[in-house]
Amino acid sequence: MAASVLIGPPVQAEPLPESLRPTLADTHQRHQTPQQQWLMRQWRQRMDGHLADFISAPTERRKLLTRIYQEASLARLPPELVLALIQVESGFDTQAVSSAGAVGLMQIMPFWIEELGLPMDDLTNPTRNLRYGCTILAHYLAVEQGDFTRALARYNGSLGKTWYPERVLRAWRDHWR
Which of 47, 49, 84, 104 shows a CA-CA span of 20 to 30 A to 177? Predict the structure, then answer.
């Protein structure tokens, strides 16, 4: 699946509140309770068959699903929404680069490194890419007061248009719920 194409002039980073910056830190996940671990395993088992359409190796699927669940939970996002966004953005290709220069699973624009991260951050690294993408999407959801359509449009740099949010929401509904 091809990476999404940004229409119009390159989008610049919107300032993130300081409260979101710690989500990019390389902190260890909080200790999960047995119930939280059980919920993650159940979710991962439900999603595994769906992800097999994109990634054939079971070990790779399990690792990616675990990381998506953790990063989405940290950012308080539905992990299925993150899966849908990745499906639309990169087709689960960690090395994807769009014509606009967006990189990796969640198609992060490199200017976000300067805004949020460290110069050595590698956006093709799935862990870092997911951390950036989930943080950015959570920020846009907060800015848009929970409006998924507007937040997804901001994420894509197409605020005011609905074609991109409709693609992600359709993938969420049809493939990941």
Answer: 104
